[in-house]
Amino acid sequence: MDHFIYRDGILHAEDVAIPEIAARVGTPFYLYSTATLARHYRLFDEALAGLDHLVCYSVKACSNQAILRILAELGAGMDVVSGGEYRRARAAGVPGGRIVFSGVGKTREEMRLALDGGIRQFNVESEPELRALSEVAVAAGATAPVTLRVNPDVDAGTHEKIATGRREDKFGVPIDRAREIYAEAASLPGLAVVGVDVHIGSQLTDLAPFEAAFAKVADLTRALRADGHAIDRLDLGGGLGIPYSRSNEVPPLPADYGAMIGRLLGDLGCEIEIEPGRLIAGNAGVLVASTIYVKEGEGRSFLILDAAMNDLIRPAMYGAWHDIVPVPEAAPGAEPRVFDVVGPVCETGDTFARGRPLPPMGEGDLVAFRSAGAYGAVMASEYNTRPLIPEVLVDGDQFAVIRPRPTFDEIINRDTLPPWM
Ligand SMILES: *Cc1c(COP(=O)(O)O)cnc(C)c1O
């Protein structure tokens, strides 16, 4: 459920009419709903209410400071995958003790940053990383809390590019070798083993792969305890999917996911961490664009928008579907038309959707891409020297720009000429 709804025939974000924001900010822009973000965070928090737990929002899904601040104030922890994200989480007021650090390629500088600033745990993904972290911690005179991210060899049944828990994926250590690597971790100076971590992929629309992975984690936890390790925390990653199409997808509910976690892992007495990103931010954001032209091609009509693949890359990158809706609702009885919805970028890949039924559209008409809050703004680029589009936040009847559109001078002046020119 989200808070983007039609009122009097106009799409609103909470209590604000979207055309009002478009008139003030100019299109295209990302638009987020505070109430939706808070609701989604609470769904997870409540789903784990029977267990000692921390919901660590995955910062990479949508990392604007205002978004992080909303979640931090609700009590969320954060999952970061770079030194930059660590800095963002701290800048938003998240204490180091509520930040977990994931990722296959943490540099020594990033490790040092987190050790100095405070960190809940490093989710370590390889033996070389374990040794590097040990050295950095010893040099810093610190003890690094670690979990090992295990690769359970489970197929998440999701898009090829975002499946992370199969044997051939780059993530984690093979679960079959985990006991050996935990033994090494326990023997290295500067490290304190605190738990086990797993994350098998993103946009999972079925609980079965989670169950398969978590059952393996439960077995491993018992084995590691028998080996003498203190396993007090289980980080179960993120990955719960969202409905991108209102017509046919029904992903599992956080409540069912939470109940499944309780059933499989509750008796271990561990603190449970989860790292949801997409489910918190995805349906809390839309991308608003306006029509530049309607172009009649050979047997097809192109709706050419002022948003493009550089603003929202998911359709080009993953073949992803986004519902595209008119901002003023279709007039009753209006005959729908079928459009290829495209942007202005000079690539055929810059196609958001083919053969989409929409009401008749004309120049200047607004559309909204639903479910664009996660992996939208964060993956945007300035390809074709198209400025990064603004982000706007709504809370009730108020709205504010939370990242302004850069000027062309700002963009061009980021480049510097070499001294010989
Ligand atoms: C991307 C990622 C997440 C978040 O995944 P979602 O599908 O957005 O919930 C969580 N943990 C790790 C380690 C990730 O890489």
Structure description:
The chain is of the alpha/beta class and 421 residues long. The chain has two domains: 4-31 and 282-412, Lyase, Ornithine Decarboxylase, Chain A, domain 1 (Beta Barrel), CATH 2.40.37; 103-274, Alpha-Beta Barrel (TIM Barrel), CATH 3.20.20.10. Helices cover 28% and strands 25% of the residues. It contains twelve helices and 21 strands. The chain has helices spanning 18-25, 34-47, 65-73, 83-91, 108-117, 127-140, 178-187, 208-226, 254-265, 278-281, 314-318, 408-412; strands at residues 4-7, 10-13, 16-17, 29-33, 53-58, 77-80, 99-101, 121-124, 144-151, 173-174, 191-197, 233-235, 271-274, 285-296, 301-305, 324-326, 337-342, 351-358, 366-369, 391-395, 398-403. The strands form three sheets. Strands 4, 14, 15, 16, 17, 18, 19, 20 and 21 form a nine-stranded mixed sheet that branches. The chain has an eight-stranded parallel barrel with strand order 5-6-7-8-9-11-12-13, surrounded by five helices. A three-stranded antiparallel sheet has the order 1-2-3. Helix 4 (83-91) links the parallel strand 6 and strand 7 (99-101). The longest helix has 19 residues, at 208-226. It is globular, with a radius of gyration of 23 Å. The model has no long low-confidence stretch (mean pLDDT 96). Pyridoxal-5'-phosphate (PLP) binds at residues 58, 60-61, 79, 81, 102, 199, 202-203, 237-239, 275-279, 374.
